[in-house]
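Thread title: Can someone regenerate the structure for this chain?

I was given the following input by a collaborator and told the matching structure tokens would be attached. They weren't. Posting the sequence so someone can regenerate them.
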Amino acid sequence: IDRDLNYSKPARFTLQVKQPWYLNAGIVATAGGGVLALVGISMLTGWRYAAQRRESARLRDQMLVQEREARASLEGKNRELLESSRHLEEAKAAAESANQAKSVFLANMSHEIRTPMNAVLGYAQILQRDDTLSPHHRRAIDTIERSGSHLLGLIDEILDLSKIESGRMEMHSD
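Best answer:
Regenerated them for you:
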């Protein structure tokens, strides 16, 4: 309406409202798809992580069981080795004791045989000085003296060996 009260044609006014950029369908679809993709990837990664954790826990438990079994087996083997070692030590001590007894026996027997052998050899030497002996008796006494000397040499060697074994051998240098 103007001053004269004349009516003019109504004016048209068009107002166009644009959505903000972040509500644009292309952006929302892309962003929503990205968010959905991230959520999906996160879920898959989480499930995979949980599965790996379960597998890791299963393997750790299996390894602990194997370690316990191995430890028990080793402890059993150690006990067997210790017992075997103890038996070997006992056997070694018994063998050393038997060896020592053998050496003492040889030394004693050598002395016990040597004394009468010296007496036999002494009488054989006395009889050899007798001029009234027949040649037959002289040959017999020579045989007794040779055999006795040989036997006395063997006994002396056995006595020396037994002294060496028992640790009583004495060396004299001239």
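The chain has a mean pLDDT of 86.
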